[in-house]
Amino acid sequence: MTDTTGTTPASSRAFPTSFLWGTATASYQIEGGAHEGGRGRSIWDDFSETPGRVLNGDTGAVACDHYHRWEEDLDLLADLGVGAYRLSIAWPRLFPTADEVLNPQGVAFYREILTGLRCRGIAPVVTLYHWDLPSYLEASGGWAERATALAFSRYARACAEVFGDLVDTWTTLNEPWCSAFLGYASGVHAPGRCEPETALRAAHHLNLAHGLAVRALREALGARATVSVTLNLHVVRPADPADADCVAAADAIDLVGNEIWLGPLLRGEYPAELLRLTRGVTDWGFVQDGDLETAHAGVDVLGVNYYSPNTVRRRQEGAAPGGSGGHGAGSASPWVGCDDVEFLPPPPPLTAMGWGVDPSGLTDLLTSLAQRYPGLPLIVTENGAAYDDVPVAGRVHDAHRVAYLRDHVEAVGRALDAGADVRGYFLWSFLDNFEWAYGYSKRFGIVRVDYDTLTRTPKDSFAWYRQLVRSGSLPPVQAGGAESA
Ligand code: GCO
Q1: Where are the beta strands (DSSP E) in 336-419?
Q2: Which terminus in the chain has less CB density within 10 A, N or C?
Q3: Is the minimum distance from the CB of 364 to ligand 1 under 6 angstroms?
């Protein structure tokens, strides 16, 4: 049914008034200013400057130049009307050198941004680690070493002390799966190592780092601290749910993709099946007494990133093991202990990343977490899509992105209907930005960034999201479906 304006009046879904609408970025992906303000080097500077690691040799040296244009960006956020903004702090801006002397220029930079957000009525949701490990820590072993977790807790404490009056919610780690397995197993992310045992050590030290950081935040801030962690939990489906081999393949991915975090962080254990699955790789001797208790520090809210589900089966003759984890194919698989598993290519439609589009995965993820961990509030800390936007006369009509977003916000609504305690939704991403190994070739933003002039141009999806966050209801879709929005 269409009304006289040509819109479909149906399906205007209202969200609770307390529901938090936001958008997200990360330091290395947008800041630039890599050699300014006393910033030290990170593993992403080293990795991206290494020939052949990042598409087209792109680096984050300039990125979106947010380092100089942050005020313009904050004004755009205010125009968007979001209640919250998820950003990350670059660890090497605060502690540029191994002696861990706090860099006052780094502190001043983030204090200005955090204050600027608050002045505009936007709550800062701050991630402490979105992958830009100081290079001096990688030089002494990186996440393979326990010392890195201890350094992280000192950094977290310093952040609490200098930004505690301005931050709304603290997120310790962003997607530790990517840090451990893309960084140390498949090597498609910094530091680019392909060492399966090291990847499991890194995973454990990230879990430990989270727990130590939560402790530091709570000691420094007391009851004022709202703490979280953001996980990219893998929605993994057996190709044939009636086939025991397919189900076993899905279970293996669930263990190394999800349980390796949920177990220690939310239950204080590594499941016995995970230890069994990986026993050919490690004996887990790096787990020390008390570590699991530390990792199990508890979170006030669990951040969930979702883009696309995976379908797996037992590996068929001739097929490559594992999948790329969605971030570019390396010569090695990130799926340590899962050599028997094969990922099936997603059916169309696909985004520019080659990822499938299936909003039901988001509903399933949120409802299953809600059932498994009752009483734990959830927040979607990332969701969005890259498409090959084509600017036309200075505008970007990104109908595919609008359709993707609309359907996924609806999927969050369905999880709420099913009783999941979902508190908010952060769209990835506010700006087009440095998409890791893909450099600037993939655009996730609702604001286009022209990388020659650094001009910002809000896309149609920006206007669409603006309407959503300002009304709290999903705007009606144009007749003919979301694609024509
Ligand atoms: C991640 C990161 C983001 C990415 C986004 C799209 O999830 O990998 O948090 O930095 O840019 O997810 O890949």
Answers
A1: 341-343, 378-382, 391-392, 395-396
A2: N
A3: no
